Amino acid sequence: MASTNELKSRTRGDYPYLLEYRTRWADNDMYDHMNNSIYNFLFDSVINTYLIEHCGLDPPTSAQHPLMAHTHSDYFSAISFPKVAELCLRVNKLGKSSVTYEVGLFEKNIDGVKAVGKFVHVFVDRATLRPNIKGMNDALRKGLEKLVVPGISSKL
Question: Which of these, 100, 107, 145, 103, lies nearest to 123 by C-alpha position?
Fold first, then answer.
């Protein structure tokens, strides 16, 4: 597990996948910055966008789909409307049926990570809602392997 100082020093180059998000007026809270619930929405969105576009996931029909097992966020500085967020994604651990993601949220054209989120998904069979004894399917695994950062502990 990375220390707070390690997370604060993250750069876009630490993540193999990037997705832009234009903040909305409704994302701001009464304190004039993006509400913490929106960060979680964005972290979930970048992960699922990647799964759909690069891992063959079709949410309404795929035989396997992810269930959230754990989430955690560290916030370092605020972002607010009308800024553009850059959501950067990597895989820190790839197990038989689970994956640990890390999402770095940056403001476009600004150095320094605003927040880092950790999400753990367990892939389950649609019919039983239990992990498949053989683990995640090949398309999911191959897509997620592309996000594994060299030097990070990973069970392949």
Answer: 100
